[in-house]
Design goal:
Blueprint: E1 4-9, H1 12-23, H2 29-32, E2 39-42, E3 47-52, H3 54-62, E4 68-72, H4 73-79, E5 84-88, E6 94-101, E7 113-117, H5 120-130, E8 134-138, H6 145-149, E9 154-159, H7 163-167, E10 170-174, E11 179-180, E12 182-186, H8 188-193, H9 195-212
Parallel strand pairs: 1-3, 1-4, 7-8, 7-9
Antiparallel strand pairs: 2-3, 4-12, 5-12, 6-9, 6-10, 6-11
The protein binds 1-O-pyrophosphono-5-O-phosphono-alpha-D-ribofuranose.
């Protein structure tokens, strides 16, 4: 049988997932010594790790070329379409926040505000719920720059420690949007066809996650 494929979001979530998989007894030497390789076997080769950008993890899982994926809830909220979210992995914890320059009153006045973000859908939903008309500008990274440069009145972004905001003179206006952490997602057909293998891996990951918390 072909190996079970799990797509990991490259970077921090990849590292935390590898730690969890190693704690669960899978040999992840190939991932640790990957160089520039993007598809790597783990354990006895029954599982293959695929390294991808966050939104692409969802695309590969949705299209069934990967059975499982590890991706942040932020990416799921922005892109989520049709797959199953089967486990909260407990790491990669952060939250969405609306933030702006210190000393400015974001909610005063009637002009439509301009919001810079990597998450246009999450941002539109957030302001729709408030009944506020806004303009969204999509930024690809370091969104904090946009209000500093005068491109936007505020940003919607993920905040973990808050130090990026602080060091750039920005403050949280609201951060009760949604709690975020890494999730294990599964392709819906794989979940039926490879149920036992997926459940076995998810159970092992959940056991280790509980021990680590
Ligand atoms: C994220 C986010 C913030 C920062 C928040 O950026 O977009 O900039 O982390 O973390 P903090 O609250 O602990 O300071 P990331 O590092 O993913 O880089 P990017 O902005 O270039 O995408």
């Amino acid at each position: 049988m072909k190996p079970l494929r799990i797509a990991l979001t490259k970077g921090r979530l990849e590292k935390d997932t590898v730690k969890l998989l190693e704690a669960a007894g899978f040999d992840c030497t190939a991932v640790r010594e990957k160089g520039r390789k993007l598809i790597l076997p783990i354990g006895n080769g029954d599982i293959e790790v695929v390294l991808a950008k966050a939104a692409d993890v969802i695309t590969y899982v949705e299209n069934g070329v990967c059975d499982l994926g590890v991706v942040g809830k932020d990416t799921i909220m922005e892109n989520g379409r049709s797959f199953y979210e089967i486990l909260d992995l407990g790491f990669g914890k952060c939250r969405f926040a609306l933030a702006g320059k210190e000393g400015t009153d974001f909610f005063s006045g009637y002009d439509a505000r301009t919001i810079a973000t990597k998450y246009p859908n999450v941002t539109r939903n957030f302001f729709e719920n408030k009944g506020m008309d806004i303009r969204v500008i999509k930024i690809e990274g370091s969104v904090e720059l946009a209000p500093l440069l005068g491109l936007a009145d505020a940003i919607v972004d993920i905040v973990e420690t808050g130090s990026t905001l602080k060091e750039n003179g920005l403050v949280i206006i609201e951060d009760n949007v949604a709690p975020i952490s890494a999730r294990l997602i599964a392709n819906s057909a794989s979940l039926k066809l490879r149920k036992a293998e997926i459940e076995d891996l998810a159970d092992k990951m959940e056991t280790e996650r509980k021990k680590m918390q």
